[in-house]
Amino acid sequence: MRWWEEQVGGTTRGRLIALLRRGVSTIEELAAALGITDNAVRAQIATLQEAGIVEGAGTRHGAGAGKPATVYQVASSAEPALSAAYAPVLVALLESLGDKLTAGELDAVLRDTGMRLAPTEPDTGRSIEARVRSAAALLTALGAEIDVVRTRDGFRLHGYACPLSAAVRAQPNACHAVESLVAGVVGAPVRECCDRGSSARCRFEITSRSA
Length: 211
Known about the structure:
Layout: H1 3-7, H2 11-22, E1 25-26, H3 27-34, H4 38-50, E2 54-60, E3 69-74, H5 86-100, H6 103-117, H7 128-141, E4 146-150, E5 154-159, H8 165-170, H9 175-186, E6 190-192, E7 203-207
Antiparallel strand pairs: 1-3, 2-3, 4-5, 5-7, 6-7
Helix pairs in contact: 3-4, 6-9, 7-9
């Protein structure tokens, strides 16, 4: 059984998601397949909609003249969260690139990847602190746990987790992709000094004369 079939709010909700991944369904169809009441399914659907996992996908007219029934589907934006393939594929990709590229070429690819994840241009109309906090919020959304700490020369993004921990174990320079991402958000010099111990932790020093 896949992890989310048991852990996304319990087995009933996980089974509901599994059904919706196979195709759109109405409340009544889901209730019949799960052997529970329509109201129980509605409650689960409402929770999953609030979480952005499920969304309405139009209506379906039945054979009679009754009210059209809403059909539901798994939101496309939620699919990555239901996959366990991203981390192992990324790790294998980095290992493959490491075998085929020089260290400098691989580092350039990683830094370019980070820049592609960043906004086109830093929002220099905002203060450097606001931009640093935006970078921290972005890393948090990606799976890090980040504090913003003032330093003598600017700021430090002090992490307690790493959103790329599996990739970093395979290729330590994967941190340079995140360094480029942070630099692209803050528009100031950024130095990666991550903790690559048994529990990887993000650390980025940001220099700003206006800090």
